[in-house]
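fyi for ur records
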Amino acid sequence: MKSDLGIRSSLRILARSLPMAALILLPSAAAALPVQAEPAAVTEDTFTDTSDRVGPASYCSDGPLYNLTETFNFSERAVDTSAGVQRLNFRYTVLVTGTPVDPGLPTVTATGAGGGGLTSGPAESNSSRLLIKWSFSDGTQLTERSLFHYTFANGNFTNFRVTCNSIP
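which gave:
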């Protein structure tokens, strides 16, 4: 079973994967947990993670580089079964602010929300979704929807899928 630190580490990895992937949809595999001999232990937590990066002002496409600050607010609920499987459901919001590397470009802010699920045991499976709206100081707006899924087993990522699109 993952510790709080392990769960937070997994969520931070997901959050920082947004520029190359996108987030979040609950896996159907998580629904079929083994029969439990003892009651499941349930814990809940909330936390915030802020990071800086240089990248495009989009999680779905390339573009000019921005100095971005991303703040994620997570709310999680973990269920630990007696069979050694942990199921985690989470929701989060993200706030992004950015200044362009090229000073001739507009500044940007973005707000988004998502959620998903993570199942760990012998293998870890995660799916998530994210809906985010980017607003540029020149009046341009961009809304993106992302779905992200991976499986991690024996030290390797497998079954890595990303679907990301812009909404007019």
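The two ends are 42 Å apart (CA to CA). thats all i got for now
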